[in-house]
Amino acid sequence: MTGITGAQADRPVPVRPFDEPWHAAAFAITVHLHDHGLFTWPDWADALGRALAGDAHAGCLDGSDDYYRAWLAALQEMLATGGVADAADIEQVKQAWTDAYLTTPHGQPVAIALR
Amino acid sequence: MPHDHHDDNPHSLLPSEPALRVKALETILTEKGLVDPAALDAIIDLYSHEIGPQIGAGIVAKAWTDDAFRAALLADADQAISALGHGGRQGEHVVVVENTPETHNLVVCTLCSCYPWPLLGIPPGWYKSDSYRARAVREPRAVLAEFGVTLGEGTKVRVWDSTAEIRYLVLPMRPEGSGGMDEATLAGIVTRDSMIGTGLPAAAGAAT
User: Which of A62-66, B37-41, B82-86 has the highest mean pLDDT?
Assistant: First the structure.
Protein backbone atom coordinates (compact mmCIF):
# COMPACT_ATOMS: atom_id res chain seq x y z
CA MET A 1 0.00 0.00 0.00
CA THR A 2 1.28 3.39 -0.84
CA GLY A 3 1.70 6.02 1.81
CA ILE A 4 -1.13 8.22 2.88
CA THR A 5 0.61 11.52 2.84
CA GLY A 6 2.31 11.40 -0.52
CA ALA A 7 5.10 13.11 1.41
CA GLN A 8 3.28 16.38 1.04
CA ALA A 9 4.68 19.21 3.03
CA ASP A 10 2.79 20.17 6.15
CA ARG A 11 2.46 23.84 5.39
CA PRO A 12 1.14 26.01 8.20
CA VAL A 13 -1.49 27.56 5.91
CA PRO A 14 -2.71 25.65 2.86
CA VAL A 15 -2.66 28.01 -0.09
CA ARG A 16 -5.33 26.09 -1.99
CA PRO A 17 -7.76 24.30 0.28
CA PHE A 18 -9.84 23.23 -2.74
CA ASP A 19 -8.33 21.43 -5.72
CA GLU A 20 -11.09 22.50 -8.12
CA PRO A 21 -13.55 25.40 -8.15
CA TRP A 22 -16.48 22.98 -8.21
CA HIS A 23 -15.23 21.36 -4.99
CA ALA A 24 -15.36 24.79 -3.37
CA ALA A 25 -18.80 25.51 -4.83
CA ALA A 26 -20.25 22.20 -3.65
CA PHE A 27 -18.79 22.81 -0.20
CA ALA A 28 -20.14 26.37 -0.03
CA ILE A 29 -23.64 25.38 -1.19
CA THR A 30 -23.78 22.75 1.55
CA VAL A 31 -22.58 25.09 4.30
CA HIS A 32 -24.98 27.79 3.11
CA LEU A 33 -28.01 25.46 3.03
CA HIS A 34 -27.14 24.20 6.50
CA ASP A 35 -26.78 27.77 7.78
CA HIS A 36 -30.31 28.37 6.53
CA GLY A 37 -31.71 25.29 8.20
CA LEU A 38 -32.40 23.06 5.22
CA PHE A 39 -30.86 20.13 7.09
CA THR A 40 -29.03 19.37 10.31
CA TRP A 41 -25.32 18.71 10.28
CA PRO A 42 -25.66 15.16 11.69
CA ASP A 43 -28.12 14.34 8.88
CA TRP A 44 -25.63 15.74 6.38
CA ALA A 45 -22.77 13.71 7.86
CA ASP A 46 -24.89 10.56 7.64
CA ALA A 47 -25.68 11.21 3.97
CA LEU A 48 -22.04 11.93 3.18
CA GLY A 49 -20.96 8.82 5.06
CA ARG A 50 -23.40 6.71 3.06
CA ALA A 51 -22.26 8.24 -0.22
CA LEU A 52 -18.61 7.60 0.64
CA ALA A 53 -19.30 4.03 1.71
CA GLY A 54 -21.41 3.32 -1.37
CA ASP A 55 -19.07 4.96 -3.82
CA ALA A 56 -17.97 2.80 -6.73
CA HIS A 57 -14.41 3.50 -5.65
CA ALA A 58 -15.07 2.64 -2.00
CA GLY A 59 -11.87 1.56 -0.38
CA CYS A 60 -9.62 3.63 -2.59
CA LEU A 61 -11.01 7.16 -2.43
CA ASP A 62 -8.12 9.57 -2.71
CA GLY A 63 -9.88 12.36 -0.86
CA SER A 64 -10.01 14.84 -3.74
CA ASP A 65 -12.16 14.53 -6.88
CA ASP A 66 -13.74 11.24 -5.89
CA TYR A 67 -14.43 12.56 -2.40
CA TYR A 68 -16.26 15.58 -3.77
CA ARG A 69 -18.21 13.39 -6.22
CA ALA A 70 -19.51 11.54 -3.16
CA TRP A 71 -20.13 14.92 -1.52
CA LEU A 72 -22.18 15.97 -4.54
CA ALA A 73 -24.19 12.72 -4.47
CA ALA A 74 -24.95 13.34 -0.79
CA LEU A 75 -25.97 16.94 -1.51
CA GLN A 76 -28.34 15.77 -4.27
CA GLU A 77 -29.81 13.24 -1.85
CA MET A 78 -30.43 16.02 0.71
CA LEU A 79 -32.13 18.16 -1.94
CA ALA A 80 -34.31 15.26 -3.08
CA THR A 81 -35.23 14.36 0.50
CA GLY A 82 -36.03 17.98 1.24
CA GLY A 83 -38.25 18.20 -1.82
CA VAL A 84 -36.10 20.96 -3.32
CA ALA A 85 -34.98 19.26 -6.52
CA ASP A 86 -34.97 15.73 -7.82
CA ALA A 87 -32.51 14.07 -10.17
CA ALA A 88 -34.60 14.92 -13.25
CA ASP A 89 -34.70 18.63 -12.37
CA ILE A 90 -30.96 18.69 -11.92
CA GLU A 91 -30.33 16.74 -15.11
CA GLN A 92 -32.48 19.16 -17.09
CA VAL A 93 -30.67 22.27 -15.88
CA LYS A 94 -27.31 20.56 -16.29
CA GLN A 95 -28.22 19.86 -19.91
CA ALA A 96 -29.16 23.51 -20.40
CA TRP A 97 -25.72 24.54 -19.11
CA THR A 98 -24.04 21.96 -21.33
CA ASP A 99 -25.88 23.27 -24.39
CA ALA A 100 -25.02 26.84 -23.44
CA TYR A 101 -21.30 26.03 -23.21
CA LEU A 102 -21.39 24.21 -26.54
CA THR A 103 -23.15 27.03 -28.37
CA THR A 104 -21.68 30.14 -26.77
CA PRO A 105 -18.77 31.55 -28.77
CA HIS A 106 -15.47 31.38 -26.98
CA GLY A 107 -14.85 34.50 -24.93
CA GLN A 108 -18.51 35.32 -24.51
CA PRO A 109 -20.14 34.94 -21.09
CA VAL A 110 -22.01 31.64 -20.83
CA ALA A 111 -25.53 31.92 -19.47
CA ILE A 112 -28.77 30.03 -19.52
CA ALA A 113 -32.26 31.48 -19.68
CA LEU A 114 -34.00 31.27 -16.35
CA ARG A 115 -37.25 29.41 -16.55
CA MET B 1 -5.11 12.22 -28.15
CA PRO B 2 -7.21 13.26 -25.18
CA HIS B 3 -6.88 16.96 -25.79
CA ASP B 4 -6.42 18.30 -29.23
CA HIS B 5 -5.58 21.94 -28.91
CA HIS B 6 -5.49 22.37 -32.65
CA ASP B 7 -9.25 22.11 -32.86
CA ASP B 8 -11.05 25.08 -34.19
CA ASN B 9 -14.16 24.65 -32.10
CA PRO B 10 -15.42 28.16 -31.59
CA HIS B 11 -17.48 27.34 -28.48
CA SER B 12 -16.52 27.83 -24.87
CA LEU B 13 -14.58 25.11 -23.06
CA LEU B 14 -17.04 22.63 -21.58
CA PRO B 15 -16.57 22.18 -17.82
CA SER B 16 -16.37 18.69 -16.33
CA GLU B 17 -19.53 16.69 -15.66
CA PRO B 18 -19.54 17.32 -11.89
CA ALA B 19 -18.74 21.00 -12.44
CA LEU B 20 -21.80 21.29 -14.69
CA ARG B 21 -23.87 19.45 -12.11
CA VAL B 22 -22.79 21.92 -9.42
CA LYS B 23 -23.67 24.81 -11.73
CA ALA B 24 -27.09 23.25 -12.19
CA LEU B 25 -27.58 22.98 -8.42
CA GLU B 26 -26.51 26.58 -7.99
CA THR B 27 -28.96 27.70 -10.67
CA ILE B 28 -31.87 25.77 -9.19
CA LEU B 29 -31.16 26.86 -5.63
CA THR B 30 -30.69 30.49 -6.63
CA GLU B 31 -33.96 30.48 -8.55
CA LYS B 32 -35.73 29.08 -5.53
CA GLY B 33 -34.20 31.75 -3.33
CA LEU B 34 -32.38 29.17 -1.20
CA VAL B 35 -28.90 30.28 -2.17
CA ASP B 36 -27.36 33.70 -2.62
CA PRO B 37 -24.39 33.52 -5.01
CA ALA B 38 -22.64 36.33 -3.12
CA ALA B 39 -22.95 34.35 0.10
CA LEU B 40 -21.39 31.31 -1.61
CA ASP B 41 -18.46 33.44 -2.71
CA ALA B 42 -18.09 34.76 0.84
CA ILE B 43 -18.01 31.21 2.25
CA ILE B 44 -15.36 30.12 -0.25
CA ASP B 45 -13.31 33.23 0.44
CA LEU B 46 -13.56 32.68 4.18
CA TYR B 47 -12.29 29.11 3.99
CA SER B 48 -9.66 29.97 1.38
CA HIS B 49 -8.12 32.96 3.10
CA GLU B 50 -9.20 33.44 6.69
CA ILE B 51 -10.01 30.14 8.34
CA GLY B 52 -7.09 27.77 8.51
CA PRO B 53 -4.68 26.00 10.82
CA GLN B 54 -3.18 29.29 11.96
CA ILE B 55 -6.28 29.69 14.17
CA GLY B 56 -5.69 26.35 15.88
CA ALA B 57 -1.99 27.16 16.16
CA GLY B 58 -2.78 30.37 18.01
CA ILE B 59 -4.96 28.45 20.46
CA VAL B 60 -2.24 25.85 21.05
CA ALA B 61 0.40 28.54 21.59
CA LYS B 62 -1.85 30.30 24.07
CA ALA B 63 -2.40 27.03 25.94
CA TRP B 64 1.37 26.52 26.09
CA THR B 65 1.97 29.93 27.63
CA ASP B 66 -1.13 30.47 29.76
CA ASP B 67 -1.88 27.74 32.30
CA ALA B 68 -5.29 29.10 33.19
CA PHE B 69 -6.30 29.13 29.52
CA ARG B 70 -4.92 25.62 29.07
CA ALA B 71 -7.00 24.34 31.98
CA ALA B 72 -10.09 26.09 30.66
CA LEU B 73 -9.47 24.73 27.16
CA LEU B 74 -9.22 21.15 28.37
CA ALA B 75 -12.23 21.51 30.65
CA ASP B 76 -14.59 23.21 28.17
CA ALA B 77 -13.07 23.90 24.78
CA ASP B 78 -16.24 25.42 23.31
CA GLN B 79 -16.30 28.13 25.95
CA ALA B 80 -12.55 28.79 25.92
CA ILE B 81 -12.46 29.00 22.13
CA SER B 82 -15.54 31.17 21.75
CA ALA B 83 -14.03 33.58 24.28
CA LEU B 84 -11.26 34.07 21.69
CA GLY B 85 -13.84 34.78 18.99
CA HIS B 86 -13.68 31.44 17.22
CA GLY B 87 -16.34 28.81 17.06
CA GLY B 88 -18.31 26.26 15.17
CA ARG B 89 -20.83 26.92 12.44
CA GLN B 90 -22.23 23.42 12.37
CA GLY B 91 -23.30 23.36 16.00
CA GLU B 92 -20.57 20.92 16.84
CA HIS B 93 -18.65 20.62 20.08
CA VAL B 94 -14.90 20.82 20.12
CA VAL B 95 -12.96 18.62 22.52
CA VAL B 96 -9.25 19.26 23.03
CA VAL B 97 -7.15 16.21 23.82
CA GLU B 98 -3.70 16.75 25.28
CA ASN B 99 -0.60 14.82 24.31
CA THR B 100 1.59 13.74 27.21
CA PRO B 101 4.73 11.62 27.45
CA GLU B 102 2.39 8.69 28.18
CA THR B 103 -0.33 9.29 25.56
CA HIS B 104 -0.27 10.45 21.96
CA ASN B 105 -3.64 11.40 20.48
CA LEU B 106 -4.64 10.84 16.87
CA VAL B 107 -7.84 12.16 15.26
CA VAL B 108 -9.79 10.56 12.42
CA CYS B 109 -13.34 10.53 11.09
CA THR B 110 -14.13 6.98 10.06
CA LEU B 111 -17.62 7.90 8.79
CA CYS B 112 -16.79 10.78 6.49
CA SER B 113 -14.55 13.74 7.19
CA CYS B 114 -15.72 15.52 10.33
CA TYR B 115 -13.00 17.94 11.28
CA PRO B 116 -12.67 21.08 13.40
CA TRP B 117 -13.10 23.42 10.42
CA PRO B 118 -13.32 26.66 12.40
CA LEU B 119 -9.91 25.91 13.92
CA LEU B 120 -8.08 24.12 11.10
CA GLY B 121 -9.93 25.02 7.90
CA ILE B 122 -10.65 22.49 5.16
CA PRO B 123 -9.12 19.08 5.89
CA PRO B 124 -6.23 17.90 3.72
CA GLY B 125 -6.98 15.28 1.07
CA TRP B 126 -5.34 12.46 2.98
CA TYR B 127 -7.65 13.04 5.97
CA LYS B 128 -10.59 12.35 3.66
CA SER B 129 -9.02 9.32 1.99
CA ASP B 130 -10.31 5.81 2.58
CA SER B 131 -6.80 4.72 3.42
CA TYR B 132 -6.39 7.08 6.37
CA ARG B 133 -9.95 6.66 7.59
CA ALA B 134 -9.61 2.89 7.71
CA ARG B 135 -6.04 2.54 8.88
CA ALA B 136 -5.86 5.21 11.58
CA VAL B 137 -8.00 3.00 13.80
CA ARG B 138 -6.60 -0.36 12.71
CA GLU B 139 -2.91 0.38 12.72
CA PRO B 140 -2.29 3.87 14.11
CA ARG B 141 1.41 3.29 14.74
CA ALA B 142 2.01 2.29 11.14
CA VAL B 143 0.11 5.36 9.97
CA LEU B 144 2.11 7.58 12.31
CA ALA B 145 5.33 6.06 11.01
CA GLU B 146 4.32 7.02 7.46
CA PHE B 147 3.93 10.57 8.66
CA GLY B 148 7.39 10.35 10.19
CA VAL B 149 6.17 10.20 13.77
CA THR B 150 7.88 7.56 15.87
CA LEU B 151 6.75 7.26 19.45
CA GLY B 152 8.58 5.77 22.39
CA GLU B 153 7.55 2.27 23.40
CA GLY B 154 6.06 3.64 26.59
CA THR B 155 3.73 6.00 24.73
CA LYS B 156 0.19 4.79 24.12
CA VAL B 157 -1.71 5.93 21.04
CA ARG B 158 -5.30 6.98 21.59
CA VAL B 159 -7.45 7.35 18.48
CA TRP B 160 -10.43 9.71 18.53
CA ASP B 161 -13.19 9.16 15.99
CA SER B 162 -14.84 12.48 15.13
CA THR B 163 -18.55 12.78 14.58
CA ALA B 164 -20.88 15.45 13.29
CA GLU B 165 -21.38 16.49 16.91
CA ILE B 166 -17.87 16.24 18.34
CA ARG B 167 -14.65 17.36 16.68
CA TYR B 168 -11.29 16.80 18.29
CA LEU B 169 -8.23 19.02 18.35
CA VAL B 170 -4.92 17.66 19.59
CA LEU B 171 -2.94 19.84 21.98
CA PRO B 172 0.60 18.75 21.15
CA MET B 173 3.42 18.79 23.69
CA ARG B 174 5.45 21.97 23.72
CA PRO B 175 8.82 21.10 22.21
CA GLU B 176 11.94 21.11 24.31
CA GLY B 177 14.08 24.15 23.74
CA SER B 178 11.11 26.44 23.12
CA GLY B 179 11.27 27.97 26.60
CA GLY B 180 12.33 31.40 25.46
CA MET B 181 9.73 31.79 22.73
CA ASP B 182 6.78 34.12 23.03
CA GLU B 183 3.23 33.14 22.08
CA ALA B 184 3.42 34.44 18.50
CA THR B 185 6.68 32.64 17.80
CA LEU B 186 5.31 29.45 19.30
CA ALA B 187 2.24 29.64 17.07
CA GLY B 188 4.65 29.54 14.13
CA ILE B 189 5.96 26.11 15.06
CA VAL B 190 2.52 24.51 15.54
CA THR B 191 1.81 22.58 12.37
CA ARG B 192 -1.61 21.53 11.13
CA ASP B 193 -0.68 17.86 11.37
CA SER B 194 0.44 18.26 14.99
CA MET B 195 -3.14 19.29 15.83
CA ILE B 196 -4.54 16.20 14.06
CA GLY B 197 -1.96 13.99 15.74
CA THR B 198 -0.18 12.90 12.57
CA GLY B 199 2.70 15.26 13.23
CA LEU B 200 4.66 17.00 15.92
CA PRO B 201 5.37 20.71 16.25
CA ALA B 202 8.33 21.87 14.23
CA ALA B 203 11.59 21.59 16.13
CA ALA B 204 12.08 24.67 18.25
CA GLY B 205 15.38 25.38 16.55
CA ALA B 206 13.71 25.41 13.14
CA ALA B 207 11.50 28.40 13.89
CA THR B 208 12.50 31.63 12.28
Answer: B37-41
Sorted by sequence, the CB contacts under 8 Å of residue B75 that are 6+ apart come out as none
* Residue B109 located in a structural domain: yes
In a domain, B197, yes or no: yes
Which distant-in-sequence residues (6+ apart) come within 8 Å of A63 by Cβ? Answer: B124, B125, B126, B127, B128, B129, B132
Interface test with A, best of B21, B109, B113 (most A CBs within 10 A): B21
The rounded distance, in Å, linking the Cα atoms of A68 and A85 is 19
| Residue B113 is among the residues annotated as catalytic for this protein | yes
When divided into structural domains, chain B yields a total of 2
Chain A residues within 8 A of B130 when measuring between CB atoms: 52, 58-61
pLDDT of B92 higher than 90:
no
CB contact under 8 A, A67 and B128: yes
Q: pLDDT class for B202, splitting at 50, 70, 90? A: confident
Domain identity same for B80 and B110: yes
Asked if A85 lies within 8 A of B188 by C-beta distance, the reply is no
Interchain pair B164, A4: CB under 8 A: no
Domain encompassing residue B194:
53-206
Are B65 and B34 contained in the same domain?
A: no
Segment B62-86 mean pLDDT: 95
Q: Is residue B139 part of a domain?
A: yes
Task: Give the SS3 label for residue B99.
Answer: coil
ipTM above 0.95 for this complex: no
Q: Do B147 and B100 fall within a single domain?
A: yes
3-class DSSP state of B89: coil
